[in-house]
Amino acid sequence: MAQIINGKEVSASVKASVAKETAQLKDEKGIKVGLAVVIVGDNPASRVYVNNKKKACEEVGFQSFEYALDESTTQEQLLDLVDVLNRDTRVNGILVQLPLPKHIDETAVINAISPDKDVDAFHPVNVGKIMIGNYSFLPCTPAGVMELIASTGVEIAGKNCVVIGRSNIVGKPMSMLLLHKSGTITICHSKTQNLKEVCANADILVAAVGRPNFVTADMVKEGAVVIDVGINRLENGKLCGDVDFESVEKKAGYITPVPGGVGPMTISMLMKNTLTAAKQQVGLE
Ligand code: NDP
């Protein structure tokens, strides 16, 4: 039976260390850390994410600046706001909640955020730095997964690591981070052949597919570390991951639950990136 990796606990410990350093920065150097969160329109899921981020800012002692813009906001207006935030010294990190309404080009907005304040690490400069392995910010979800794997004590070097999914926010950077830790990486996607056999060979399996209960026990190696990034809403309103938890739990060595696994980590890594940004902006890192 797998050991459950408790994302809430790991996340709480990351936030506690961010809170401690934030308090020190304020007390010893008079520096306040600030995160600006921009939301356009009224997507209910985005609203929940933004509220959680605001709450996390309060927990760690950051100032949070929220900009809730109307659905009809033009791209130009949003870019103007980003420009103002890029120059606002109270703001160390800028997060524009995705997805944006269809009439706004997300790439243009991401590219307009100053790379120094890009705490989501979506800007091409930061993406390139991740590729090279010389990064300031790691994208929050894959970085959170790395913390969860570290919490198991399982060494990544030399292990077969399989990532299902190749998106720019999860799959691709996830693979890079595992590679930087000297794992042997296979990236799977919708065109992958023999997916079951490939996954069943993984010592570390990360699922970022977006399909409920996609990973079944026959796809999992005995004793593997199984990380479930998926967040899927079922018809009955319940949340579930990409991994069939009930069957896989019996075979894996470690497994993350949904909810309570990767989800809480994403926000705590955002807090960590914002603190890093603040330190870099005052020349402390
Ligand atoms: P995307 O839809 O962008 O990517 C999904 C990936 O899964 C694609 O690369 C796709 O392949 C692959 N895929 C789809 N079907 C199959 C299949 N049958 N076999 C193999 N691969 C397949 O999703 P994201 O990466 O943005 O998100 C993935 C999941 O993670 C979602 O459930 C999302 O909600 C969740 N998520 C959770 C976060 C958290 O904080 N916990 C944060 C971000 C995302 P192809 O490229 O060929 O189409």
Per-chain topology:
Layout: E1 3-4, H1 7-29, E2 34-40, H2 44-60, E3 63-69, H3 75-87, E4 93-96, H4 106-112, H5 124-132, H6 140-152, E5 160-164, H7 171-180, E6 184-188, H8 195-200, E7 204-207, E8 225-228, E9 232-233, E10 239-240, H9 245-248, E11 254-255, H10 262-281
Parallel strand pairs: 1-11, 2-3, 2-4, 5-6, 5-7, 7-8, 8-11
Antiparallel strand pairs: 9-10
Helix pairs in contact: 1-10, 2-10, 6-7, 6-10
Give the rounded overall mean pLDDT: 97
Q: Ions, cofactors, ligands: which are bound?
A: NADPH dihydro-nicotinamide-adenine-dinucleotide phosphate
Main sheet overview:
6 strands, parallel
What low-confidence regions span 5 or more consecutive residues with pLDDT below 50?
none
Distance between the termini: 43 Å
Task: Outline the structure in words.
The structure is a single chain. With 285 residues, the protein is of the alpha/beta class. The chain has ten helices and eleven strands. The chain has helices at 7-29, 44-60, 75-87, 106-112, 124-132, 140-152, 171-180, 195-200, 245-248, 262-281, and strands at residues 3-4, 34-40, 63-69, 93-96, 160-164, 184-188, 204-207, 225-228, 232-233, 239-240, 254-255. The chain has a six-stranded parallel beta sheet with strand order 1-11-8-7-5-6. It has a three-stranded parallel beta sheet with strand order 3-2-4, sandwiched between helices. The chain has a two-stranded antiparallel ribbon with strand order 9-10. Helix 6 (140-152) packs across helix 7. The protein is globular and about 50 Å long. The chain starts with a strand and ends with a helix. The site of NADPH dihydro-nicotinamide-adenine-dinucleotide phosphate (NDP) has 25 residues, from helix 10.
